[in-house]
Design goal:
heterodimer, A: alpha/beta, six-stranded parallel beta sheet, 11 helices, 12 strands, Nucleoside ABC transporter membrane protein (chain B), transmembrane transporter activity (chain B), ABC_transp_permease (chain B)
Amino acid sequence: MKAAAVLLAGSMALAACASDEPTGTGSGEGGAGAAPEELRIGLAYDEGGRGDQSFNDSAYAGASAAADALGAELQELSPNEDASNRAELLTQLAEQGFNPVIAVGFAYDDVIAEVAPQFPETTFAQVDGSNADGAKGDNVTGLVFAEEEGSFLAGVAAALKSESAHIGFVGGVESPLIEKFEAGYVAGAQTVNPQIRIDRQYISPAGDFSGFSDPARGQIVAQGMYDAGADIIFHAAGGSGLGVFQAAAASGNRAIGVDSDQYLTVGPELQPVVMTSMLKRVDNAVEQFINDYAEGNVQGAEDVLSDLSTEGIGLATSGGFIDDIQDDIQQYSQQITDGTITVPTTVE
Amino acid sequence: MTGLVRRLGLSLLGPVLAVLVALVISAVVIALIGEDPVEAFRVMVDLGDSPSQQVQSIVVVLNRAVPLFLAGLAVAVAFRMGLFNIGVEGQYRMATILAAAVGAAVALPGPLHVLLIVVVAMVVGAVWAGIVGVLKVTRGVSEVISSIMLNFIALGLASFLLTGPLRGSAPGASIVTTSEIPESGRVPSLNGLLTALGLAAPRSGLYGFLVVAVVVGVVVAVLLQRTRFGFDLRATGLSPSAATVSGVDARGMVVKTMLISGGIAGLIGLPDLLGSQYDYGTEFTAGLGFLGIAVALLGRSSPVGIALAGLLFAFLDRAALPLQFADIPSSVVTIIQGTIVLAVVIANEVARRLALRSAERAGASAGPDPGAGGDDGAPPPTGPDGGQRVRTGVPGTPEDVQA
């Protein structure tokens, strides 16, 4: 055992020595031509990282669109498996001179408040994290969304389209953010039909993030609701939503997607069940923020809100399943925008 | 003497072979995705340019290694006894949330406050694991099943406590947490020590809990190797029936071992809790209990081995960042970690068979040789290692502890 220790330690020491050798360029090979004042964008993902076909990918889409348009370099970082190194992601990006640095997800709340003040020269933004009061530092902009407004419209659509007056909601992880979706959805459905029955269930409890990436459990939960008589289910469950669609397809019912226009991302066999999707345009918000930064229009210590009025939130129409109720949806949308309807953000 | 060398060589063979095989497989994978494996490995061992960056990298590795070490240790104590404690995950989650709540609720002078939090965590972890032990000796429930089930219960219970009675964060906050532990309940960082050693000051603090982890590691090593209890534990792990015949109370051993395993598991969350987070919340690091199983396997259930395995995993974990800066997918790290665990199980088995064969050959040619071992702390030829225990711990094999 002792010899094992020595040998392993030795090999690690050797490995460490190797790093002292002079090396070529260290990092940042992602950029093309190196203009002196080149814009270098840092993007730190939430749990799951790039390729989650959801939230993180949407942020990437926006950032890469902006980077392409501006000829900027884009450096992405995904956290480790349990996302315990979020602070490292932000500090490394800031330390290596990336500016602006964009953190994706509310999970960066504490971390960004800790890191941003250490790098006053760097401009930070956090998707889904508010910094309206400047508590996270003067150099942090919050990119926030009125998810409840879009979810309200999803509830309206579900209630109008439901034949059994029985609909469902599947949340990924029980958390304040997902409860915003639930609150809006319930309010919307009940506005159309106060008697409607709404089954609501979360895949995993608070603190267990598996609920966003577990299609199998998403399918089971949704199947239970369909079996109980629900005919439309709205999911706010990230990657688990695929299971909801599969359950809908298997039982001949329908479902509502979330974040991106999921009609376009699911396979052709699932397209008929995706009635609509609640759009949360993270991509637009990120792209807009980078453009604003490039033009020097970022103040910091403020929130940029995407809602129905800015079209950062909306309802997808791909597939044409809700074309016949567009008038109603427009009407409710108008009432939310002009303040006639106030959508709750918490479940009572 | 040559026998000892051969034995040491054989006990080394498993882990070293496993790491080598994992590196080769990873290199092939990296080459297949069109990247340069040599460049990738170079990036992984690059700790940074400036001295302060290098120290920071080491601090990051150590801070990650401390909980991994404790997790591996908790799993290993049970392994040595032939128990497969998969419930470490649930044990540390329950322990951490209750310790965080107690720590935030009381005000005591510094060391006493920390001590209270540590004791609460260990007791909660031990109780949660003790349920598994009691179920096993009284009802014959396989510890694998009951500890997995208790994980789910722990997760749900922790979630209920966090969002209900123990909620300390503001109503609108996106991250739900318990109340913060006051200054007196926190463990100071060891950065002063680093600068005193003439090293550059790192950006983040080196967990003071590192000291506690080392102490726990030493205590466990002494307990296993130098006490009657440790002997009984290892003997029961090697051969339950032989141990029972020689007067070991197998039932009592199961409960005691689970209590110790759970007590150590209770500590897993504390480095983060007392060193940087100061509260338990929905974002608290999850999954350490499961990683601990891999760490214990790789470390062959010996404290020194686990320390090295924890460092290796922590090192790989940190390497994921520089890899991404070099435009190499960080999944490479996950692949390496996965192949190491897989390879270590296979290599342990291969090494065990080789050891068995060489022992048989030695036994055939020179009678007394096999009997010479066992008094020097080196493992016997078959090695009381995790790999072997895991096979015996799998449900479906005959009940191993209860005679």
